[in-house]
């Protein structure tokens, strides 16, 4: 072979090699490398490249196991499974876990977990129950689906780029789809906030899965520069060096407070209606005191009844604002169990139980006046002893029992089961007795009005007017229900009706006893005549009484038809 031929062959081979290398470079540049976005960072604060879907799934599944290890009561044996000391990826064997008290490392793969019977798997059999195990496995499965979604999106965008259409990477300042360790977040426009229902992993600390309507939402912020918001977290567990590192800033705080926003809404509705009742009750008491009506026994009972309602309104407003709203706004005041909090609950319960006692006093007095018309009036002391003394006798043993270490938690807001009967028995007794007295009062009224052609309607109207006075509306509270169990609109409407009925009692009672009282109307008209005698028409007492009586009948009918709607 001549020298020229050798040179030509070498030249051809050289060109071929150069072309091959050039093609390889072009291919590498045009094929997008595998990368599913996640929250695991290397020492340089960059996302770790797990190369394949299998490696990504194993790593994220390991993180799920690491996260759930914080949950109380998640493990059948706490001494065996604890937080991992290090999460390390070895290309030859995959993810390794260090298990406490075992002095061994175990291979950890999602495929092995998904293929074996959980009772025979070292990791799965240590869960306390299926809820925690399913929560962990669902986290692994969701991580895998999130990566698969990212791969599909990347492939579609590669095709779009070939067709000269704009894909995700052609849109600057857009946050990419990402797995944050608990759930998958779709791509988002810059400077926007996204919201999703809380994932199952966020409920591991609760020990149960809330119903769909009870679940709160997690939020994540996409910044103006097209990156997801991060926060600086102290390096612990898997980071051996000291300092801080950037971590995903997904807002999961409300996830551990199921029903928080709805409970806040209910508490505020209750507070607003209690404020309305409080204003009217205070105005009613002021009217009675101003016109010196409080010297009459009937009015004394009215004023004490309204006074118990005022206490109920005041402490209910404080309870709603300082405890309920604070708790569902993520405050830990109930968990800290301070003394002022327990004192507030004591006064809150005392005011409620005194309200029931004075309702029974009102019912007993009215029953005595109608059924036993000629009976001698009892001494006021009996009414005071029962109205204020009976609640005190109930609250003393209730406080003593609640102060025991077993029940002295959570600001005494949780029922004590059987010991709670110490508090419940008196209100229930009052409701039952009031119902019996109301039935007898209506029976006597129907008998006396039998000669009237509309006696049935008059008796029904009297019954409806007396319902809030006798507290019969509280029978709706005997059967407690949680609208979040069924998540139906009708049950939520019933719950709001229950809230309004409880809080509006003061407004209705004060209106009946004071603002619709004929004697009060006479006193008010006399006062007005004294203030503006020239511009007012002086009426006789009989005319004033007839005018106020007609007003009472008119408003009574309006109230009756309002209740019948």
Automatic annotation (TrEMBL):
Gene3D superfamilies per record: GPCR, family 2, extracellular hormone receptor domain (4.10.1240.10), Rhodopsin 7-helix transmembrane proteins (1.20.1070.10)
Biological process annotations from GO: adenylate cyclase-modulating G protein-coupled receptor signaling pathway; cell surface receptor signaling pathway
Record's GO cellular component terms: plasma membrane
Domain G-protein coupled receptors family 2 profile positions: 146-259, 266-517
Membrane topology qualifier: Multi-pass membrane protein
Keyword presence, Glycoprotein: yes
InterPro entries, alphabetized: GPCR_2, GPCR_2-like_7TM, GPCR_2_extracell_dom_sf, GPCR_2_extracellular_dom, GPCR_2_secretin-like, GPCR_2_secretin-like_CS
The keyword Cell membrane is annotated on this UniProt entry: yes
Sorted UniProt keywords: Cell membrane, G-protein coupled receptor, Glycoprotein, Membrane, Receptor, Transducer, Transmembrane, Transmembrane helix
Compartments, record wording: Cell membrane
Transmembrane segments: 272-291, 303-323, 381-401, 421-446, 458-479, 499-518
GO molecular function, one term: G protein-coupled peptide receptor activity
Stated family: Belongs to the G-protein coupled receptor 2 family.
This protein's name: Calcitonin receptor
Source species of the chain: Medioppia subpectinata
């Amino acid at each position: 072979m001549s020298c020229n031929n050798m040179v030509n062959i070498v030249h051809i081979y050289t060109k071929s090699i150069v072309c091959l290398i050039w093609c390889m470079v072009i291919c590498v540049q045009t094929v997008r490398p595998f990368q599913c976005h996640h929250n695991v960072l290397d020492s340089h604060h960059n996302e770790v490249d797990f190369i394949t879907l299998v490696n990504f799934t194993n790593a994220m599944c390991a993180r799920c196991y690491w996260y759930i290890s914080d949950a109380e009561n998640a493990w059948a044996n706490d001494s065996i499974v604890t937080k991992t000391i290090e999460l390390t990826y070895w290309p030859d064997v995959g993810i390794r876990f260090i298990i406490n008290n075992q002095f061994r490392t175990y291979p950890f793969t999602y495929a092995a977990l998904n293929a074996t019977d959980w009772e025979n798997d070292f990791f799965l059999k240590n869960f306390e129950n299926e809820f925690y195990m399913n929560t962990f496995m669902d986290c692994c499965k969701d991580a895998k689906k999130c990566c698969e979604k990212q791969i599909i999106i990347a492939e579609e965008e590669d095709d779009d780029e070939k067709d000269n259409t704009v894909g995700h990477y052609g849109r600057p300042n857009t946050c990419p789809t990402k797995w944050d360790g608990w759930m998958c977040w779709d791509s988002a426009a810059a400077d926007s906030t996204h919201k999703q229902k809380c994932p199952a992993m966020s409920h591991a600390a609760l020990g149960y899965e809330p119903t769909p309507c009870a679940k709160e939402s997690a939020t994540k912020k996409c910044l103006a520069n097209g990156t997801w918001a991060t926060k600086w977290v102290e390096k612990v567990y898997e980071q051996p060096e000291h300092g801080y590192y950037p971590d995903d800033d997904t807002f999961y705080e409300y996830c551990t407070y199921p029903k928080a926003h709805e409970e806040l809404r209910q508490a505020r509705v209750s507070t607003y209606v209690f404020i309305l009742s409080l204003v009217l009750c205070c105005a009613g008491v002021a009217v009675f005191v101003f016109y010196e009506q409080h010297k009459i026994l009937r009015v004394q009972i009215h004023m004490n009844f309204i006074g118990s309602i005022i206490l109920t309104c005041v402490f209910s407003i404080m309870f709603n604002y300082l405890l309920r709203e604070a708790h569902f706004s993520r405050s830990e005041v109930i968990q800290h169990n301070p003394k002022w909090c327990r004192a507030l609950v004591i006064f809150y319960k005392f005011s409620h139980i005194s309200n029931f006692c004075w309702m029974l006093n009102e019912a007993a007095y009215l029953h005595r006046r109608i059924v036993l018309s000629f009976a001698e009036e009892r001494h006021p002391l009996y009414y005071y002893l029962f109205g204020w003394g009976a609640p005190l006798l109930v609250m003393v043993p209730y406080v003593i029992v609640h102060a025991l270490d077993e029940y002295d938690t959570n600001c005494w807001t949780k029922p004590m089961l059987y010991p709670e009967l110490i508090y419940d028995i008196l209100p229930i007794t009052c409701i039952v007795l009031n119902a019996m007295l109301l039935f007898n009062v209506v029976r006597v009224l129907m008998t006396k009005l039998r000669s009237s052609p509309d006696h049935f309607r008059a008796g029904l109207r009297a019954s409806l007017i007396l319902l809030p006075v006798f507290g019969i509306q509280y029978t709706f509270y005997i059967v407690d229900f949680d609208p979040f169990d069924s998540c139906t609109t009708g049950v939520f409407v019933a719950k709001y009706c229950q809230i309004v009925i409880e809080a509006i009692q003061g407004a209705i009672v004060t209106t009946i006893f004071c603002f619709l009282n004929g004697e009060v109307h006479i006193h008010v008209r006399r006062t007005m005549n004294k203030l503006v005698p020239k511009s007012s028409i002086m009426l006789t007492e009989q005319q004033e009484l007839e005018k106020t009586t007609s007003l009472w009948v008119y408003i009574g009918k309006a109230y009756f038809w309002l209740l019948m709607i």
